[in-house]
Amino acid sequence: MGTFQERFTSEERTRKAGGKVRWLQTVKRPIVEKDGSASRVLGTSTGVTERKGTELKLRRQRAELAHVARISMMGELAASLAHELNQPLTAILSNAQAALRFMAANSPDLEEVREILKEIVQDNSRASEIIRRIRALVKKEDLEFVPVDVASVVADVMLLVHGDAVLHNVQVSFEASPDLPRVRGDRVQLQQVILNLLLNAFDALKGCREKDRRVLLRVEREDAHTVKVMVRDRGTGLNSDNFDKLFKPFFTTKRDGLGMGLSICRSIVQAHGGRMWAENDLGYGATFCFTVPVDGTEKKGIME
């Protein structure tokens, strides 16, 4: 008589004769014979097409909401981003005019012209990089979970918020533990989380003295399987009565806020298999933290 061992469950995508897609959840058990061999398998399949359709619909709705939130954040940064782009564009114009003046001379200094052209190329690259980062953040694409360098994600975001930090007299510093492993996630959505936390930190510092307008962004390895990201401000801190509401939809302490930023951020982090929380610091200010599993781990998350 056979015995059942090593049970496992998988979801399989099939296509019917008419082309319609069908999803099956299959339970398979190897039947072990008296001699120890297992040449036969007993399987049972259950149709889960409707459930998969609902999951896909919810995933798309969350992706749409996250995309709208990114566009909204870009709106907040519009003035500072325009200023950031205006600087290299103005420098390009000034250098081009200077180069034309040198070339119009009877004996143009070609070495000087060469140096001016190098500066034009550098400023062009700076402006192009800012535009590239903006386009990457607002572009609507499907989620792509791949190995990601968190430090480079932070660098992208810090370039985007540089103008806003200058505008609000905020000093932003970044610390990263050495030999950070890559995490598995969607680069754009991780940027969205960090960007949202930084903009919130800037907002928390509006009423503070200029010398206290500081934000620390730190990335470190929490344990063998997890990387932790922290955004710490030196503002007035969080109201203890609001801790339970911080990550709920439509809760906001901003006058013009929609109350969706932190809720979306938490959903993104959970979809990456991580967690997100906030805490008041011992002195003053608040810290928002989230974790992301290291690439290669089996940890998985579910969007709420």
Task: Explain what this protein looks like in three dimensions.
By secondary structure, the chain is α+β, with helices and mostly antiparallel strands. Among the domains are: 45 residues, Ribbon (Complement Module, domain 1); 151 residues, Histidine kinase-like ATPase, C-terminal domain (Heat Shock Protein 90). A 5-stranded mixed sheet has the order 6-8-9-11-10. Helix 1 crosses helix 6, helix 2 crosses helix 4 and helix 5 runs antiparallel to helix 6. It starts with a strand and ends in an 11-residue tail after the last strand. 24% of the residues are buried.
Compact summary:
This protein has helices spanning 49-76, 78-104, 110-138, 150-167, 187-204, 261-271, and strands at 3-4, 8-15, 21-32, 40-47, 146-148, 171-176, 183-185, 214-223, 226-233, 276-280, 286-293. The two termini are 46 Å apart. The longest helix has 29 residues, at 110-138.
The CATH architecture term of the domain at 143-293 is 2-Layer Sandwich
How many helix segments? 6
Q: Strand-and-helix sequence, N→C?
A: EEEEHHHEHEEHEEHEE
Question: What is the mean pLDDT?
Answer: 78
Major β-sheet annotation: 5 strands, mixed
Cα Rg: 26 Å
CATH class of the domain at 143-293: Alpha Beta
Query: From the structure provided, what is the oligomeric state, counting identical versus distinct chains?
Result: single chain
Helix content: 40-55%
What percent of residues are in strands?
Answer: 15-25%
Low-confidence stretches: 297-304
**SSE-based structural type:** alpha+beta
Distance between the termini: 46 Å
CATH superfamily of the domain at 143-293: Histidine kinase-like ATPase, C-terminal domain
